[in-house]
Design goal:
By secondary structure, this protein is of the alpha+beta class. 29% of the residues lie in helices and 22% in strands. Strands 1, 2, 4 and 5 form a 4-stranded antiparallel sheet that branches. The protein has a 3-stranded antiparallel sheet with strand order 3-12-11, with no helix packed on it. A 3-stranded antiparallel sheet has the order 6-10-13, covered by helices on one side. Strand 4 and strand 5 form a beta hairpin. The longest helix is centred in the N-terminal third of the chain and has 24 residues. The two termini are 32 Å apart.
């Protein structure tokens, strides 16, 4: 935490003196740091004005996924999904955040069956009866970022795959219950991992969630195998994603050498992922995008 005089303007932009605004808040964070805890910097903590702007971005993100949910079906190509996302996002005044991000060629990630994440839309990928697919949408609106994804079951999906999709959603919900001020990211992570393992699944370790709002990917990195009471302290104003990738078989993965993006399960068994964007509040949490 940077040094600020008691009578200086608060770092949050409220216009109030520091001693009347965030001094006590910062002192509480400092007390945790002295105990050896990982604590957030001011850069991670969003101001009320920033949070409101991020909410507006998230509204577009939700609407785009709602559109996909209403139209996705057997016979649709992932290229068509990409076009939907581009059109719906830009018509609402937004920009698809994945497009050209570090060279990613499309507006959305579409990951089918054994694809864990970062699937690249293609005219050759036609959704078939029995497929499960994750559609991961991210939006920039007036410079502010939102990010969430949903799973879709296409046609007559096997009970085995349906269960994977459902348990993965439950993992996110149970993790969310642990998001509260002055708790820890590890509280959420253990809830996710415990539920996945209890159901016979594994959690991907190398890829996780992230802070988001002012940039596409910010600190903290969010993993799902940590223990309760570990990882970063959660404080009001933090925004991050909960997006565990749950595999039916091994947690081990590999990246497609051909495109450098798409991640697959090592054993080629199915994987599922739901993603929500969460704000830590004074009393608990608020889901911004889903």
């Amino acid at each position: 935490m940077e040094l600020i005089g008691r009578n200086d303007p608060c770092w949050c932009g409220s216009g109030q003196k520091y001693k009347k605004c965030h001094l006590e808040f910062d002192e509480k964070i400092e007390s945790y740091r002295r105990k050896g805890c990982i604590v957030p910097s001011h850069k991670i903590i969003k101001t009320p004005a920033q949070i409101q702007a991020i909410r507006q971005s998230a509204k577009i993100n939700i609407a785009v996924l709602d559109y996909v949910a209403a139209h996705i079906k057997e016979g649709i190509t992932t290229e068509q999904i990409d076009q939907w996302v581009y059109d719906q996002t830009t018509q609402a005044g937004g920009i698809p955040a994945p497009l050209n991000f570090e060279g990613f060629p499309n507006s959305v990630c579409t990951s089918i069956n054994d694809q864990v994440c970062h699937g690249i839309p293609s005219p050759d990928d036609v959704l078939k009866d029995g497929d499960i697919i994750n559609v991961d949408v991210s939006t920039i609106y007036h410079g502010y970022f939102s990010d969430s994804s949903r799973m879709f079951c296409i046609g007559n999906v096997s009970e085995e795959k349906k269960r994977l999709v459902q348990v993965t959603k439950e993992c996110v919900e149970l993790g969310l219950e642990q998001v509260k001020p002055w708790g820890f990211l590890g509280d959420m992570a253990q809830a996710v991992n415990d539920h996945a393992v209890k159901n016979g699944y594994s959690v991907v370790r190398e890829i996780g969630g992230h802070g988001v709002g002012l940039e596409f990917h910010e600190d903290p990195w969010v993993g799902y195998i940590a223990k309760r009471g570990t990882e970063m302290l959660l404080v009001p104003g933090m925004i991050f994603t909960i997006e565990p990738m749950i595999n039916m078989g091994t947690h081990e993965i590999f990246v497609d050498d051909a495109n450098g993006w798409t991640v697959y399960t090592e054993d080629r068994k199915p994987s599922a992922q739901w993603e929500i964007q969460v704000l830590v509040t004074e009393t608990g949490h608020e889901v911004l995008a889903y």
